[in-house]
Specification:
Number of strands: 0
Largest sheet: none
Shape: rod-shaped
Number of helices: 6
Helix content: 55-70%
Structural class: mainly alpha
Order of helices and strands: HHHHHH
Strand content: under 5%
Distance between the termini: 84 Å
């Protein structure tokens, strides 16, 4: 929670840099929550000569700022685009989760199949060995044409 109190402080400083027309779009109770939640002992210096996007802000500050912007500051058209973007991102995350589940199931299924294959190949095989003398005699018989032909 400490990071969020620092982020609220950064947000408080940023809001103070806004023009009055933008500040007035943010409800007073939201400003009060930001002020009460801010860690006033945290040292953050907003550089006026650098654009907001180039400021060294905490990731939590960017998140809070985007929520503030999408809920209170942006126009209705921009708000619709944010809603569409949020839906797109949500669907994208859900699709990634589904693909991850399918891949996990695939590997699980292959493990089972491999175990079955291993079990099938682990049966003992009877190997008949002929001694060398019998093999020589059988070879001679096959050349001469005597004996059982295989």
């Amino acid at each position: 929670m400490e990071e969020y109190s620092k982020a609220f402080y950064e947000l408080k400083i940023i809001i103070n840099k806004f023009e009055d027309s933008i500040k007035n779009k943010i409800p007073k109770n939201i400003i009060d929550i930001i002020n009460k939640s801010a860690d006033n002992h945290y040292e953050f210096h907003y550089n006026d000569s650098v654009a907001l996007t180039d400021q060294n802000l905490l990731p939590e500050t960017w998140g809070l700022l985007s929520i503030l912007y999408s809920n209170y500051i942006c126009s209705l058209d921009e708000k619709r685009k944010w809603i569409q973007y949020d839906e797109f991102e949500k669907n994208l995350r859900n699709n990634k989760k589904l693909k991850k589940v399918e891949i996990n199931e695939l590997f699980t299924k292959n493990k089972i199949d491999n175990n079955i294959a291993i079990e099938k190949t682990n049966y003992p095989i009877k190997i008949e060995k002929e001694n060398i003398i019998k093999r020589i005699i059988n070879k001679i018989k096959s050349i001469v044409g005597i004996g059982d032909k295989k």
